[in-house]
Amino acid sequence: MERFKSLHKRREDARKLNHEQVVEEDRVSKLPSNFEAKRRRQEWELEEIEARKDAETKGEDFDRIKALNTQADVADKIDTSKRKRKNPDKGFSSYEAMSVRQYERLTNNLKPNMETYNNMKEVVGADQFYPTADTLIQGSHYPTDSSLNKLVEDVKGQMKKRDQYHRRRMFDPDSQVDYINERNRKFNQKLERFYGDYTEDIKEDLERGTAI
């Protein structure tokens, strides 16, 4: 009886342990896929907050200490990852912001010739080179031929880029006409995309019969 009671107790303990493991596995399976990474991230943030408080208490610069304790290759990887995550184009928010982005993009591509600039300023004079509302003579300095050519090339480049990004689909005169209007053309394209592989034989038979 003592042996039977011992075996019975071991069976109950095993059943209880098995039930706890099943419950734990079910709980883990219902967690998000990034739960462990998120938990480690939160633990790392808590440790960093505690270390920052400890450094402030001691009167030390936490960022400097952290940089000194970070390996160079790890720092390069972190910096590269930050640059990849940073999106300079935040999309359309307003026409004003779009104009500012366009202005910054165009001005960043400018490479002024400082030698020509300084020579022109010496010839004209600083007072006339930087006109104000009180300046009587306007147009005292003029662009050079190379600057004008550079402006022309830049304008042509902008026009070419606008043509490339034009959203309107151009009409192909060599394509087969199997539609009666624009709406029917788009509908036929959708049918061809989804059912073209299944109806190819039927379509060929109909065309062959019509030709005969």
Automatic annotation (TrEMBL):
The keyword Lipid metabolism does not apply. It is found in: Nucleus. One of its GO terms (cellular component) is catalytic step 2 spliceosome. Residues 1-28 are annotated as: Disordered. Pfam families: SYF2. It comes from the Eukaryota. Keywords: mRNA processing, mRNA splicing, Nucleus, Spliceosome. The keyword Nucleus applies. GO terms for biological process: mRNA splicing, via spliceosome. Transmembrane segments: none annotated. Involved in pre-mRNA splicing. Belongs to the SYF2 family. May be part of a spliceosome complex. PANTHER family: GCIP-INTERACTING PROTEIN P29 (PTHR13264), PRE-MRNA-SPLICING FACTOR SYF2 (PTHR13264:SF5). This is Pre-mRNA-splicing factor SYF2. The lineage of its organism: Eukaryota, Metazoa, Ecdysozoa, Nematoda, Chromadorea.
